[in-house]
């Protein structure tokens, strides 16, 4: 892939490629929006195949014949596209190997680094050819692309951090300058690219020793999104896994409700430690600043870590011999991990309830999101009741129960009563929306009774439960106010029903000429709704359907009674005579 010397006697027009916009569009449309590097690699291969055929730059039939790309070869912009997509194919293949479920092994890692070297080779050729054949902006973007690929290779090799830092800074400087010019879309893309490069630069500074970043700050950097950050995230995850393994060596016991369960398996310790680190994010002082979507993602990671721990524990149980003490410890550890998993499930469902309540209070949503119905909250509280019952049964199982377990079971029972009151409240709300006043009134009263019972039992417990007590008090007050509203609406509707009935009866006509109520099209001059109350299901009176029959004129019916008595004249003399009936065979031949 050598470059010929430029010909001084030939002046060719400079090519122009918006490299960043071209790559970003291809990546987002072909898999990288969801991190699917396999799909993007296949797209690059198909795109290269089309370019080879259209440019007639194939490599022979049957036997492969290598064809180099030189300066004299590049006669149109598609040759530069071919080099660029070759680099992207090699890079996406390397990232595909990086995202294997258990990480690349030794041979796969060698192959991964080889593909990154190939990507650097193509990116260097692309930069050199753009410097000769393309305009200044394209050449600058190609240099930034080359610097990014070289930095990614050194980043993956875990060596020459100062050189990698230099390459990343060079790419960032180019994109910062390009972000000041051009159209608005290009400026936004350049700024996003600068933000994606920033974590890699900070990590390189951390490895060089010019930064005082802590592990928690590195995790916060890893929360950003973008294809340029996937290599950084995989590297960060490997570093955190190594740190957890070192920290797990000192973790020998799992504490739960006064019990201490020994942990002998190193994989179990790492999984539990990972879950506990994630729990600090949702229970720490900065938990309120985290959005609901990010907290749900953290909960999913916690569930995955605890499920891994349970899998390792049950695998140890299956391989354990007849040692009763080891089996008892493993069973206790399995019970403790399952109980913690149940607690986090309840917390996650409570977060979903909080989000649903905030949407329920909205009348008009600016983001065109679906507004929550009371039935959805009823379903969530059904899940919470099932989770609480399962957790209570799990904690109550066992012979020797400690004081902590008994108090925890009482808290679960009290939570169950509170969830029952909340569920009854939203069932009443759904009946109220349907216009069933009597059922809604009875359910509001029942919900208030359940809330009062839960509040009395909560006050007997010794614990910090001010938040739940406040919620139950608010629920009781809301139930009382809504029951009064439903009572009043029921009386008003019943009175209005009697008045409407008496008015309709007085308007009844024996001839049926008058209708009980006019349609909308007949009273357009009156400002009166034809749909009715939104809380009451009734048919709108816009126009009558099907339309009533109307009398129309018809042609008269004529009965011709004289037809049967008329004698018509004979017309036999005008009819043709049948010649076939006369004569024999010869007459038929000769006519």
UniProtKB/TrEMBL annotation:
Subcellular location: Cytoplasm; Endoplasmic reticulum; Nucleus, Nucleolus
UniProt GO MF annotations: 7S RNA binding; endoplasmic reticulum signal peptide binding; signal recognition particle binding
Coiled-coil positions: none
Residues that span the membrane, as ranges: none
Keywords: Cytoplasm, Endoplasmic reticulum, Nucleus, Ribonucleoprotein, RNA-binding, Signal recognition particle
GO biological process: SRP-dependent cotranslational protein targeting to membrane
GO cellular component: cytosol; endoplasmic reticulum; nucleolus; signal recognition particle, endoplasmic reticulum targeting
Protein's UniProt keywords contain Transferase: no
InterPro entries: SRP68, SRP68-RBD, SRP68_N_sf
Family: Belongs to the SRP68 family.
UniProt function note: Component of the signal recognition particle (SRP) complex, a ribonucleoprotein complex that mediates the cotranslational targeting of secretory and membrane proteins to the endoplasmic reticulum (ER). The SRP complex interacts with the signal sequence in nascent secretory and membrane proteins and directs them to the membrane of the ER.
Protein name per Swiss-Prot or TrEMBL: Signal recognition particle subunit SRP68
Organism: Crotalaria pallida
